[in-house]
């Protein structure tokens, strides 16, 4: 029976992953969630899970950079799988202040790897899975897709810190024989997404009749993956993926940012017609679209070739963008308390300080 240490499980993807594993996979072991609860960590994401899975779900507030903390947890719970999500994850924040990204994403991953190497002491029936991003590959021109063999070319402090952590994980696999796997995934969206990233930010701003900021010309392209599809891919890799391998995970859904924002406007119009939303003051949702100064060093296009995971592990994305966006909008509308709590916390303070637009 597996005992899994999930790092960063109070964040967006980590909390969806814990929910997915406990509710959807038939897994009957234990999950320990180690999370520092930065501005992006929200234990409310798993409040129901905490109640429902007493004894099988354990939350520990702590920092992955603390080697002793991590080693202590590995020993105490007899951990056999590490699913490593914890990270500073927002590119804009990495531009304003890269230090925490270097600390958590690089030093934190190093401390986890060291603790796993010490505790597992050469065992092969264990797994260290590192969750990473397609942003490590850099920016594409009009054509082409990132493959697992694409040379690394990170361009933001965020992607550079993730690239560095990927290299460390791979090195521990090669040098010490630690059974590692890595997934490099495209942009996720779905429930519990912290509203600093494009999709949740646009949904909540639109509902309040506030501007929908589109960076630069809005023609940058991202590939979008519904978070539950990502969780399924990670679970598949942990259980069936070959140690030492990297798998690219994508949504087969390349879209220009401006089209994503227009899609959000359409999804909202279906759910809460603008004419019935007093905050809109007679405007249409699309009238809120506002072009703003571009992000420094903004990558132009990401696209993922996920044929390896499809061929080797039989994984593919199932949720189409229109359906996923509809579910996401519905989730934000159905959870006003979550939204209020997030928006009155650190998020609000940070936004006020750093975003004058
Ligand atoms: P998130 O910012 O929502 O959550 C990160 C979590 O990590 C938070 O709960 C935070 O409290 C925790 N954390 C931060 N520093 C920590 C530390 N030092 N010790 C312990 N916990 C700490 O991020 P996310 O969007 O859920 O991303 C999860 C992982 O997936 C990250 O590694 C990210 O690089 C990767 N990823 C994200 C996306 C995406 O679209 N969101 C795409 C590809 C890869
Ligand atoms: P984001 O959600 O921050 O994810 P990432 O930078 O990891 O891809 O941004 C997605 C895209 O949307 C990216 O090209 C930047 C752009 N963007 C905007 O145009 N406006 C916004 O307010 C935000 C947050 C992002």
Quick recap:
By secondary structure, this protein is of the alpha/beta class. It is built from 13 helices and twelve strands.
Features:
Rossmann fold, 357 residues, binds thymidine-5'-diphosphate, 7-stranded parallel β-sheet, 3-stranded mixed β-sheet, 13 helices
Helix-strand layout with pairing:
Elements: E1 3-7, H1 12-24, E2 30-35, H2 47-52, E3 57-61, H3 67-77, E4 81-84, H4 91-96, H5 99-120, E5 127-133, H6 157-176, E6 180-185, E7 187-189, H7 198-207, E8 212-215, E9 221-226, H8 227-240, E10 246-249, E11 254-256, H9 257-271, E12 289-292, H10 307-313, H11 321-334, H12 336-343, H13 346-354
Helix pairs in contact: 1-8, 3-5, 5-6, 7-9, 9-11
Bound molecules: nicotinamide-adenine-dinucleotide (NAD) and thymidine-5'-diphosphate (TYD).
Thymidine-5'-diphosphate binds next to helix 7 and strand 8.
Describe the 3D structure:
The chain has 357 residues and is α/β, with parallel strands linked by helices. The protein has a domain at 3-194 and 224-252 and 300-320: Rossmann fold (3-Layer(aba) Sandwich). It has 13 helices and twelve strands. Strand 2, helix 2 (47-52) and strand 3 (57-61) form a beta-alpha-beta unit. Helix 9 (257-271) packs across helix 11. The structure holds nicotinamide-adenine-dinucleotide and thymidine-5'-diphosphate. Nicotinamide-adenine-dinucleotide binds at residues 7-8, 10-14, 34-38, 40-41, 63-65, 85-89, 104, 108, 131-133, 162, 185, 187-188, 194.
């Amino acid at each position: 029976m597996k005992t899994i240490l999930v790092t960063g499980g109070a964040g967006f993807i980590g909390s969806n992953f814990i929910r997915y594993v406990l509710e959807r996979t038939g897994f009957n072991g234990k999950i320990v969630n180690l999370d520092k609860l930065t501005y992006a960590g929200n234990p409310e994401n798993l409040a129901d899970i905490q109640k429902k899975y007493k004894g099988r779900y354990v939350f520990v507030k702590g920092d992955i950079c603390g080697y002793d903390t991590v080693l202590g947890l590995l020993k105490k719970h007899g951990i056999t799988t590490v699913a490593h999500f914890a990270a500073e994850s927002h590119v804009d924040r990495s531009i304003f202040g890269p230090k925490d990204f270097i600390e958590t994403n690089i030093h934190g991953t190093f401390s986890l790897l060291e603790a796993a190497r010490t505790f597992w002491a050469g065992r092969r029936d264990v797994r260290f899975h590192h969750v990473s991003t397609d942003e490590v590959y850099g920016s594409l021109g009009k054509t082409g897709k990132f493959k697992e063999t694409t040379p690394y070319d990170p361009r933001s402090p965020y992607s550079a810190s993730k690239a560095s952590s990927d290299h460390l994980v791979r090195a521990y696999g090669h040098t010490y024989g630690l059974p590692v796997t890595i997934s490099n995934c495209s942009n996720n969206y779905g429930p519990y997404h912290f509203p600093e990233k494009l999709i949740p930010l646009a949904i909540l701003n639109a509902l309040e009749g506030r501007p929908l900021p589109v960076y630069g010309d809005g023609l940058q392209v991202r590939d979008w993956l519904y978070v539950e599809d990502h969780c399924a891919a990670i679970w598949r890799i942990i259980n069936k993926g070959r140690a030492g391998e990297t798998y690219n995970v994508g949504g087969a859904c390349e879209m220009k940012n401006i089209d994503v924002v227009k899609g959000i406007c359409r999804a909202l119009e279906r759910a809460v017609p603008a004419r019935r939303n007093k905050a809109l003051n007679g405007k249409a949702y699309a009238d809120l679209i506002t072009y703003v100064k571009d992000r420094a060093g903004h990558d132009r296009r990401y696209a993922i070739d996920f044929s390896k995971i499809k061929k080797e592990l039989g994984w593919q994305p199932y949720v189409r963008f229109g359906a996923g966006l509809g579910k996401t909008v519905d989730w934000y509308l159905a959870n006003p308390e979550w939204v209020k709590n997030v928006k009155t916390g650190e998020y609000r303070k940070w936004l006020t300080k750093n975003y004058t637009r």
